[in-house]
Write a structure and sequence with these properties.
phage-related protein like fold; disordered N terminus
Length: about 300
């Protein structure tokens, strides 16, 4: 006579529960990758440094030697890979009693927890960049006294102002006027690609970006922002904790702006416990969360 063992019964349900976990993770968007340069690594840590470019080309008189230049070496910053993991254990009795609905909910939460953890880690560089996290020069990521390699200072922590079309224009002007470590303009070509903020500012930004005419005046004036920067976009997410701050983000770069290192993408695994008959599930990931080496193409206005 054939016997339907508990282990066989376990196998009927475990694959389905496993898929619930993986699918719940995949349903979460990875919009943060629009604002952070994601790199792969096979190391326990990565150390990035930046260098200045060259100065301007000098005139050369007939019969005279050319002028030689040298780049300046900048400081470095280490990104340490950490392991993140969470497990869930379902007893044999729960499986045997066919409490599938509750088990399914638990597996869904396993995927959600990993997705939530990654999103929080991704936006941490923005949320704590003005008071906790530092860039390679030892200053906060968003600060008003960063030091260039030529010795001069620069700011990507703008004067806090309320959100308006005028304040956005002022911030963009400051962003695009910034010069690199040798005095060359760096942000004017690409300019600001994104304005990143909390949903508390979404309706105001929608009004500013969506208005055909200037939303701040009764005069028949065009919306200059929409006309001058037609490719500028905004993105609102609850993972930005400040309800007044807005972040300006330029093109993604290997050293300028926010960077992230992936060692192992989220991986789900399952296994049965022979002695108890329980089913064990886990999710693991390894990464070095968002940080900045040289934050020249990101900026903050803390708002008011």
């Amino acid at each position: 006579m054939a016997t339907e063992s508990r282990s066989r019964f376990n196998k009927l349900y475990v694959p389905g529960l496993y898929l619930v976990a993986t699918e719940s993770y995949k349903r979460y968007s990875e919009d943060w990758k629009k604002f952070i340069k994601v790199n792969k690594t096979k190391k326990a840590y990565e150390e990035l440094a930046y260098m200045s470019g060259l100065g301007l080309v000098a005139k050369k008189a007939e019969g005279t030697p050319i002028t030689y230049d040298a780049r300046y070496q900048g400081p470095s910053k280490k990104f340490v890979v950490e392991t993140w993991a969470l497990g869930l254990r379902i007893t044999e009795e729960a499986i045997e009693d066919d409490l599938y609905g509750k088990m399914k909910g638990g597996m869904k939460e396993l995927g959600i927890s990993m997705a939530e953890t990654i999103n929080c880690a991704a936006y941490d560089g923005f949320n704590n960049g003005a008071n906790t996290l530092t860039s390679a020069d030892g200053q906060y990521i968003f600060d008003d006294d960063h030091v260039k390699l030529d010795g001069s200072t620069w700011s990507n922590d703008y004067t806090a102002t309320s959100l308006s079309i005028d304040s956005i224009q002022t911030d963009i002007a400051a962003f695009e006027a910034l010069t690199d470590h040798r005095g060359k303009k760096i942000n004017r070509v690409g300019g600001v690609h994104w304005i990143l903020c909390n949903p508390a500012l979404e309706w105001k930004l929608a009004e500013i970006f969506g208005s055909v005419m200037n939303p701040n005046t009764a005069n028949n004036a065009i919306n200059a922002l929409k006309k001058a920067r037609p490719n500028l976009k905004f993105f609102c997410t609850p993972y930005i904790t400040s309800t007044t701050a807005r972040y300006y983000i330029g093109e993604l770069d290997d050293t300028r702006g926010m960077v992230w290192f992936n060692r192992k993408s989220p991986t789900f695994a399952r296994e049965g416990d022979f002695e108890t008959g329980d089913a064990k599930f886990k999710v693991t990931a390894r990464f070095a969360g968002a940080g900045s080496v040289d934050p020249m193409n990101i900026a903050l206005n803390a708002g008011a």
